[in-house]
Description:
By secondary structure, this protein is an alpha+beta fold. It has a domain at 55-247 and 278-289: Oxidoreductase, molybdopterin-binding domain (Sulfite Oxidase, Chain A, domain 2, Alpha-Beta Complex). The chain is built from eight helices and 14 strands. A hairpin with a 5-residue loop joins strand 3 (83-88) and strand 4. The relative contact order is 0.17. The model is unreliable at 18-43 (pLDDT under 50). It binds ligand MTE. Residues 58-62, 116, 151, 170, 199, 212-213, 215-217 line the site of ligand MTE.
Amino acid sequence: MAHRWTNRLTARDVTPEALWLGRRAVLGGLAGLGLVGAGGARADTPEPNAWEDITRYNNYYEFGTDKGDPARHAGRLTTSPWSVRIDGLVDRPGDYDFAAIMAKMTIEERIYRFRCVEAWSMVVPWNGFELADLLDMAGVQAGARYVAFETVLRPEEMPGVRYPVLDWPYVEGLRLDEALHPLTIMATGIYGRDIPNQNGAPLRLVCPWKYGFKSIKSVVRITLTEAEPPTSWNKANPREYGFYSNVNPEVDHPRWSQATERRIGGGIFARREPTLIFNGYADEVAALYAGMDLKTNY
Ligand code: MTE
């Protein structure tokens, strides 16, 4: 295995954002060769995108459908106190206080590729913890096969939910083995800062081999289920968005090709690059889909 993430990095290892930005210049000539990550661990990814690219160009439809709407309106969201209800097929169902969760978790930094379905991509240094560690707190029962996630729904703080562009609340799902995979994290920060509201504060899912819309934001409920749970984009448009949504250059979206992508922040002349199967994480995750037809399970 090329690299398997372990919990070796802690909050103390996080590189300050200013250094991250400085590193862009330092390592500009080394793009594509891979970076030396915080704490000396090798992060097999290109250089990360700038803060402005990540925090002012968002999809968070509860605050509006324009890419700038989340940055404009998400400041209204109250993110403290916060709790996550974990229920369904678990030994210890209940409301888990976010501050108490954070006190128990090892926060580490991970530089992940992030790929959106409309063919833009970026590289983001997240801070977070493995979802598996959170599920362990609740104790997953033997009958569980899927994990369902739900975003907070607060019409008084979320101007976009007046419009029925999606069926609110926003919901997502993973198969249990995907959820327990060490690459799957709950992100709580970015560039070593708390995650901005528009990016899904105080905690959002990051599953780096899947398209961005699987990264459900501001999670308030996690339910372990036996049956495959519904997902917001699949409900809205089942022909275009499937349950799995793995990054796959060979499975085109009905309205555009997925074969190439363009990096945000690269300027309008940025070269299109070939999209990598499983977003470049095939060594780690391809085995999850052995024997599955990824054209029908899109
Ligand atoms: N989560 C909620 N609750 N609402 C949303 O509209 N949009 C999704 C996903 N999570 C969305 C969401 C989509 S389409 C994408 S591409 C990513 O969030 C964008 O994450 P980012 O803004 O941090 O880049």
